[in-house]
Amino acid sequence: MLAAARGMQVLYRFPSRHIPLWFAHPPHSHSTPPVLHNKTCLRPLHRWHYFEDASSPLTRALITAGIFLHDAFTYTDRHIDRVPVSPLALHPGRGGPKNLPIVERLLSDIEDPENAKIAEKPHLVIVGGGWGAVGILKSLRPGDYHVTVVSPETYTTFTPLLPSAAVGTVSVRSLVEPLRKIAARLRGHLMCARAVDIVMSERLLEVETISPGGPGKGEHIYVPYDKLIIAVGSTSSTHGVSGLEHCFQLKTIGDAQAIRKRIIDNFEAAALPTTTPEERRRLLSFVVCGGGPTGVETAAEIFDFCQEDIINYYPKVCREDVSIHVIQSREHILNTYSEAISRYAEKKFMNDRIDLVTSARVGKVLPDRVVYTVHTPDGTIETHEVPTNFVLWSTGIAMNPFTQRVSSLLPNQVHKKAIEVDAHLRVKGAPTGEVYAIGDASTIETSVVSYLLDLVDESDKNKDGKIDFDEWRVMVNLIKRRIPMAESQLEEVRELFDLYDSDADNSLTLNELTVLLQEIGNKITALPATAQVAAQQGEYLGRKLSKLARQRGTLAANGITGGPGADEAVSGPFRYFHLGTLAYIGNAAVFDLGRTSFMGGLAAMYAWRSVYWSEQVSSRTRALLMIDWIIRVCGAATYRVYEHENCGLVPSVRSAPKARHGWFR
């Protein structure tokens, strides 16, 4: 979706007649009394003080009373004694190809009658805890399935705002929501583990439990399933570049915290008097490899952080020596957006003195520099180096180890970046109706010609081996039902038929049909790997699975007990509705709504904020995000934290911005 994002820093302009001049230009000495040049300037402030004097005690009293009532009705003595636990949960049996423990029952399966009833339902296992998984959890109806979420993290993350968290614009707690809390509505379970393998013939998912000892120290177990949904996301594509161990990526809260730590450490080292000018410039050189939304927004956030915070609390020479570089392989940044947006973002970055290097390829990343090549307009290739102590790698996606393993087990899985699924999100080659994949881990097939024989068999009414125009119209409807993404390529039905009817006999032979369907498939654009797509797929799949569960008896009465017919009987194929893409580019935002674009400063930023605020997972994260933004506006002191290498928490220096020449953040 929602690309897939990203905090915002808003500037507010107060006309000079509305605030006293000492507020717009604060005195250098706190002991010097302010000089009021215009009495009319005080009127709005007086009105504010009257309001504050009247409302603050009442507001505080109401808040205190609300908290008291909450505590009074929440803090009760609850005694838990002799909770029933299934023996199979305590002592699971072994089996499967590797003779591992098979977890058929979980600790809470029979702790109350409702859980015991749900434990007898079909077991739905969701692998992953991102946008797709949350979409399923929020759209499933309670009581339809025995739900287990397998995820190495205990929370879901609002990924679009990770660049904001990386520089402290918003706190990390505002972007996370516990998966157990989301799954509680379904009386679902969370298994903190990482999927490593699958045995489809026995419907067993092999996972490695997360151990305090670290990766590789957990126990391997089997989790049986009736339906499995793969929603594990993706990893960053390496493109064969060496030295990526020296780079950061930005996909998790841990990544944002690590980036935050490196940025602060670099500035602290640069501020030391013993640091040489050359070393200071290297420490304050920030390189972003990739000109997509994540790379562009991170570069913009770093610029804002340097421009509006670092300049206030560090030696000015540190701000002077800062350089930000964006290396993009294409000719423009944000190349998936409209041309107008790309050019607007490039102009904004050039005004901000952010170095844009386009038509370039990173050759290797060394501990102290990045080596890249640039294709010049005259066709030559030049090699350049950028000294740096910070490199963000954001250059596309690739399969993670589990999706690679699943793909290797199935025939006809030839896609290099994701698992191929059909229009119903069923994994191609897997037992039909048992394994689904959504989000970045999957891609919907676009090959129409692979259905050639089935389409001919269903469309060729007179069985003459040819398709006349009436039969072609039937085939077009079949294609649209199987692959909805092909609809835009099938609008001119008659024109297509005449174009590929090479012998003008008012019929299409198999050879002519093959060429036609291949051309249609080549023109279909795959869905982007964004949070918006994953969320819509999760919601679609959750609704469909609930229909399958509730109509199981009706389907069985009609002879449909499984296989491909069940999904088609209760739901149409997945259809993606593009709601637009957006990006933050440093005190400005851009919106690409398909046929129209919207870009600008304050208004665009408010729209940007509103969209991301409304898309928050819960009311808790909405409130926390609003508090973060209010803190930035009101100027109250804030302290950001990042994760230290020794697992300690170190406060950052990001404090409240001050009023500067009438501008207030």
Automatic annotation (TrEMBL):
Keywords from the UniProt entry: Calcium, FAD, Flavoprotein, NAD, Oxidoreductase, Transit peptide, Ubiquinone
Location, primary (coarse class): mitochondrion
Name this polypeptide is given: External alternative NAD(P)H-ubiquinone oxidoreductase B1, mitochondrial
One Pfam family of this chain: EF-hand_5
Gene that this polypeptide is encoded by: NDB1
GO CC annotation terms, alphabetical: mitochondrial inner membrane
Keyword Calcium part of the UniProt annotation: yes
Membrane topology: Peripheral membrane protein
UniProt family annotation: Belongs to the NADH dehydrogenase family.
Boundaries of every EF-hand domain copy: 447-482, 488-523
Top-level taxon: Eukaryota
